[in-house]
Design a protein that fits this description.
The chain is an alpha+beta fold and 241 residues long. It has five helices and nine strands; from the N terminus they run αβαβαβαβββαβββ. Strands 2-9-6-3-5-4 form a six-stranded mixed beta sheet. A three-stranded antiparallel beta sheet has the order 1-8-7.
């Protein structure tokens, strides 16, 4: 008998289907007017750039990654990408032997959405939700007045629910959350990092001693695995059982 028949068995092979897609590079920009005198005051100019312009650009980037409609200079955001999964809390578990007559909470809805991502063979790596919705979950208590979500307020513990980190941002609409495998299901391409340009050639700014400070960057977003993301709609779900 040939020893190679048992010692050198064939290994299982994975099959991937590759489909060509385009992820156009978009320019995101945010500008602010300032007095020309700030050019002579470096700390004040730096404050405008760091605390206002770049912060505003980051907020714009968050909104585009989530909600961009893909037209013009808009990204095609995750929530607008075709074929992402959806979960509505009202279609979840009601009653049952464990908790008869009780409806799912917002936290329950997030866990059920995570299951949908797992069933698509992608482990969810995070949750994005509106601050008001996250507040409802953090402040939810049981019948004894104990908080249901254990967060170390004094030590500044990392916001987590069901083992997943939570990002609360006004960039997502209240009543909506996004659960998904962010590191695997989508990729952000940073074509040009944020840059700053200054000019007085805008409308009548020259005669008004005003300048324009412009911050812009060029990025592209590719949602490679739409099924790795689940859009959750809360519909005013209760916050605790």
């Amino acid at each position: 008998r040939n020893a190679g028949d048992t010692a050198f068995g064939l290994k299982p092979q994975s099959s991937f289907a590759f489909v060509g897609e385009q992820a156009p590079v978009r320019t995101l920009a945010h500008w602010e007017a300032a007095h020309r005198n700030v050019l002579a005051d470096e700390p004040q100019l730096r404050s405008i750039i760091d605390n206002e312009l770049l912060y505003g650009l980051r907020l714009l980037e968050d909104n585009q990654i989530l909600n961009g409609n893909g037209t013009g200079e808009n990204l095609l955001g995750v929530l607008q990408t075709p074929n992402i999964q959806t979960y509505n809390w009202s279609s979840g578990f009601f009653g049952g032997s464990a908790s008869p007559g009780k409806t799912d909470t917002k936290a329950d809805a997030l866990r059920r959405a995570a299951t949908l991502s797992f069933l698509a063979y992608y482990e969810p790596s995070g949750i994005v939700m509106h601050p008001n919705d996250w507040e409802d979950i953090e402040l939810g208590k049981d019948q004894n007045g104990q908080y249901l979500v254990a967060v170390s307020v004094a030590m500044g513990g990392e916001p987590r629910v069901w083992r997943m980190p939570v990002v609360d941002t006004p960039a997502i609409a209240e009543g909506t959350a996004l659960v998904g495998a962010f590191g695997t299901g989508a990729q952000l391409y940073d074509r040009e990092q944020a840059s700053i340009r200054i000019s007085e050639q805008h409308a009548d700014f020259f005669t008004r001693n005003a300048i324009v400070v412009l911050a812009e960057q060029r990025i592209a977003l590719a949602v490679k695995r739409p099924e790795a993301f689940v859009k959750v709609t809360f519909n005013n779900a209760p916050t605790s059982n």
